[in-house]
Each structure stands twice: as structure tokens, then as C-alpha cells.
């Protein structure tokens, strides 16, 4: 695993506290045990700390391996019935970025399929022992409710009760147009992954934008997502092509936000064109929002108890991730101005 750490061109622990107890809590908070355990030269001395860290890393490794196996089994089962699937993130991404499918913390296996394969894939997963956690009940396929689900939803969630793995089946991505999702399919190709043919995203620029948008959608509250971006970013040699693709897919702001965060948190150098994007006013606002989310306890992100102003601000944040206007944008400004000005 040490070879993986040497391939990371920055200090993962740069923003971390140095007190051993606080550092362990920070590692748990950002799901970085596997990556941090590969960099012992940056760790505090002390047998108790090292033992606790490696115990966390072992748990992360076992979880990642379980999900890697579930990814392979599910992709093969789907392929046997003629269903193409692209693993998004997870163990396949860990292998692409770090050369080790078990070094990155993995909590689920995300698969992208075509929407017309959704019901068949659902039946296959249920027959394989998975339980569908969302939606718990499906409306009739011919109903208006089901058509609305396909139009407005983007994934189903499954959990295997005995294998302790979670699978999410996506037919689209939140905020992505049908044409943008089609671009993922067009940029994918079947490659051998650990001896198994698996369809993977073959375009590093598109993969980078996918990772930037995923982190941005979650306000980057886990730094493990930003580490992935900071590792992949130097591998994208065509910055102009990256910016053109980001403009085409309306992902300029997530890209600029991620570039600003990589510089602020890890000190990662970025090309001048990307720095100019990160310095735009909207990207700076999004960056400030993400920094607040990163510093807050994880419970703050998941808490169902939010004030009206907090809910409006979250809506405002997501509307500003896209350059194109949304119905939410203008009505929220007065409320957010009051909140920011008077801290109500």
C-alpha cells in the first residue's frame, strides 16, 4: 500500500489537526483511514494512535473489498441478461486513481444503466438477495407515477442483508441532462478490471467533471472526494478541452469550485485557465459554502432539523452550481440577503 501513498502529489493531512485524538476523529469524519495509513511519515508517534489508525484502515479495506466483489458480481449478472452497466466511483475508481481497489473508503457500489433496463435490473437484484431500500414500493410501470419517477428520480437503492453491501442503480445523474449522461456512455469502453471485463469511463476529463459535480452536490463534506479530484487533476493534460467540456455540460462552476478547494486545502497547483475559472465570483461563493460544510461536524449535513433559512440556503447553493438559470434563483435572494445581513 505504500506505493499508493507515494503516488499522491500532496499531503493528505495538510488540513488535519495534529493532536492524535482530534486527528483520528478528523480521519473518521472524512473517511480517509486507508489513504492516511499509507503515509506513516506524516503521522503522530505513539503505538496507541498507530494501532487505532490501522484498525480503521483494515475495516475500510474489508468494506471496499466487499463492494468490489459485489460490483463484479452485479455487473456480470447484468451483462448475462444483456444489460450494460458502468461502475461510477467505488472500487473501480480507487484502482484507476491509486492502483489499489481497497485503499479508498467505499460505502456503496454505484452503477449507471440505461433507463429502459431499470425494471429488469431491479428484478435481478431482488432475485440476488438484495432488498430495495428506496423506493420501498414501486408504482405500476404503466402508471403516471412511475413515469414521473423516471423523469424526476435518478437512482434506486439496495442493500444486501448478509453481505453488508449497498448498491445504487442510476439511470441518470442529478442535474445532468440526457445528452450529458449520453456523453458518459459514449466515452466509456469495456476494459479488463482485475481479470473481469467491465465497462469504464475512458475519458479523464469527463471523469474529473463527474467527480467534481458529485463532490459539489454534497458540498464536499467528505474530503475523500476532494482527494480524488486533486489526484486526477494533474493527469488531465488538455486544460482547454476540459474547460470546453465543462461549458458544454454546464459544469464550469463545480470544476472551478473544486480547483479552488484543491488549492486552498492541499496547495495543489492548477493551470492558469483553471485558476481564472476558480477566481470567478460565483465559484468563490460556492467555495466558501463548501469550506463551511467541510469544517462542520458530519451530523450538520445529515441533520433533518434545519431552519427555513438553512433550507433556502441549501436550495440556493444547488441552484448556483449551474450557470443556466433555475426557477429557484431569484425568489431566494431576499431571504438569503436577510439571513446573511442580520444572521436570522
Descriptive overview:
With 344 residues, the chain is α+β, with helices and mostly antiparallel strands. Among the domains are: 203-296, no CATH class; 304-342, no CATH class. It contains 17 helices and seven strands. The strands form two sheets. The chain has a five-stranded mixed β-sheet with strand order 1-2-5-4-3. A hairpin with a 4-residue loop joins strand 4 and strand 5 (165-170). The model is unreliable at 1-6 and 328-333 (pLDDT under 50).
Features:
single chain; 17 helices; disordered N terminus
Present the secondary structure layout:
Blueprint: H1 2-6, H2 20-30, H3 33-36, H4 47-80, E1 86-88, H5 90-98, E2 109-112, H6 118-127, E3 131-134, H7 144-152, E4 155-160, E5 165-170, H8 178-186, E6 188-193, E7 196-201, H9 204-217, H10 223-232, H11 239-249, H12 252-266, H13 272-278, H14 281-295, H15 298-302, H16 308-320, H17 329-342
Parallel strand pairs: 2-5
Antiparallel strand pairs: 1-2, 3-4, 4-5, 6-7
Amino acid at each position: 500500500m505504500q506505493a499508493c501513498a507515494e503516488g499522491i502529489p500532496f499531503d493528505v493531512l495538510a488540513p488535519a489537526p495534529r493532536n492524535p485524538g482530534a486527528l483520528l476523529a478528523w480521519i473518521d469524519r472524512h473517511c480517509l483511514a486507508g489513504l492516511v495509513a499509507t503515509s506513516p511519515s506524516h503521522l503522530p508517534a505513539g503505538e496507541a494512535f498507530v494501532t487505532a489508525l490501522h484498525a480503521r484502515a483494515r475495516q475500510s479495506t474489508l468494506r471496499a473489498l466487499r463492494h468490489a466483489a459485489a460490483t463484479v458480481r452485479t455487473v456480470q449478472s447484468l451483462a448475462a441478461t444483456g444489460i450494460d452497466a458502468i461502475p461510477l466511483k467505488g472500487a473501480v475508481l480507487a484502482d484507476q486513481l491509486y492502483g489499489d481497489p481497497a485503499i479508498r473508503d467505499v460505502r456503496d457500489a454505484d452503477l449507471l444503466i440505461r433507463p429502459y433496463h431499470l425494471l429488469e435490473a431491479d428484478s435481478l437484484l431482488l432475485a440476488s438477495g438484495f432488498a430495495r431500500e428506496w423506493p420501498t414500493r414501486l408504482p405500476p410501470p404503466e402508471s403516471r407515477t412511475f413515469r414521473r419517477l423516471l423523469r424526476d428520480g435518478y437512482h434506486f437503492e439496495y442493500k444486501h442483508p448478509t453481505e453488508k453491501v449497498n448498491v445504487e442503480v442510476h439511470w441518470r445523474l442529478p442535474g445532468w441532462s440526457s445528452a450529458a449522461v449520453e456523453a458518459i456512455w459514449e466515452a466509456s469502453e469495456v476494459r479488463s478490471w482485475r481479470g473481469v471485463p467491465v465497462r469504464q469511463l475512458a475519458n479523464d476529463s469527463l471523469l474529473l467533471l463527474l467527480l467534481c459535480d458529485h463532490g459539489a452536490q454534497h458540498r464536499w463534506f467528505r474530503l475523500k472526494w476532494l482527494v480524488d479530484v486533486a489526484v486526477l487533476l494533474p493527469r488531465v493534460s488538455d486544460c482547454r478541452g476540459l474547460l470546453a467540456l465543462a461549458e458544454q455540460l454546464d459544469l464550469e462552476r463545480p470544476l472551478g469550485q473544486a480547483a479552488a478547494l484543491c488549492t486552498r486545502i492541499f496547495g495543489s497547483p492548477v493551470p492558469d485557465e483553471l485558476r481564472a475559472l476558480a477566481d470567478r465570483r460565483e465559484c468563490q461563493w460556492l467555495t466558501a459554502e463548501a469550506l463551511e460544510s467541510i469544517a462542520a461536524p458530519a451530523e450538520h449535513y445529515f441533520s433533518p432539523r434545519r431552519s427555513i433559512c438553512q433550507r433556502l440556503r441549501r436550495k440556493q447553493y444547488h441552484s448556483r452550481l449551474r450557470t443556466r438559470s433555475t426557477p429557484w434563483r431569484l425568489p431566494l435572494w431576499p431571504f438569503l440577503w436577510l439571513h446573511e445581513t442580520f444572521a436570522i
